[in-house]
Design brief:
The protein is 29% helix and 31% strand. It is built from seven helices and 15 strands.
């Protein structure tokens, strides 16, 4: 499958994390890089192919709109991500694909991606499959832990917890420590079976026993639901 190369530019790390989580959930998108400044983005674009640029507007030094005016032809398609509505007229005059207002729901993000699809044309998209289909269930995962590589059945995983310098995979029987990041795990897991519900937690949806306000119960284990992930999680479970 040919994936669309995505570059995200925002001076807020939390906003970058949200866009990263959204991109990794769509199988035909690939996160090429996260940039905290427009200058970092310009340097990356000069050396690498970029299909879609997710761009904040209000940034110090160089605004997103000023960055757009410096891009050489042919520029990538641009989706603006901002907390301010007053730049919309100026933005669309620069031929942006979409204009997303923060906080950005995942459903609105998908609508913008579909506009990108339309503009790029069917020859750039995956064929003979639904673009929003979840990744296939493989049944098992090989996890490197210290000097060992451990096979774990996906059905045994209860949840995955991100620590400062490592990740803990909680299974029915044990806990496995690994240097993987949570983002790396979401790339390996079937998205119809697992959900990221917090910046530090991924849960197996089939193991959720109940939901109480801002927490999930898996047996007697309590897992918090992050505010940024809450809306999308409840949409997923209906």
């Amino acid at each position: 499958m040919t994936k669309l190369q995505c570059l995200v530019v925002d001076d807020e790390r939390l906003a970058l994390e949200v866009m990263e989580s959204y991109i990794e959930r769509v199988p035909f998108l690939h996160l090429a890089k996260l940039c905290l400044t427009p200058l970092q983005a310009l340097e990356f674009i000069a050396r690498n192919p970029v299909d879609v640029l997710f761009l904040d507007i209000d940034m110090p030094g160089l605004t997103g709109l000023q960055l757009l005016q410096t891009l050489k032809a042919p520029p990538p398609l641009v989706v603006l991500t901002t907390a301010y509505s007053q730049f919309a007229v100026e933005a669309f005059a620069l031929d942006v694909t979409d204009y997303l207002l923060k906080p950005i729901p995942f459903s609105r993000f998908l609508a913008a991606v579909q506009k990108v699809q339309t503009q790029l044309g069917a020859n750039r998209l995956p064929t003979n499959e639904s673009t929003l289909e979840p990744k296939p269930l493989t049944g098992q995962l090989f996890i490197k832990s210290g000097v060992k590589t451990i096979r774990v059945d996906l059905d045994d995983i209860l949840y995955i917890e991100g620590k400062k310098d490592y990740v803990l995979v909680h299974t029915r029987q044990t806990k496995i420590s690994t240097q993987f990041s949570l983002t790396s795990f979401m790339e390996k897991l079937p998205t119809d079976q697992f959900a990221r519900i917090h910046r530090s937690f991924i849960v197996a949806l089939t193991k959720v026993d109940s939901i109480e306000r801002n927490r999930i119960l898996i047996g007697t284990i309590e897992v918090p639901i992050g505010e940024l992930y809450r809306e999308d999680f409840f949409k997923r479970i209906g």
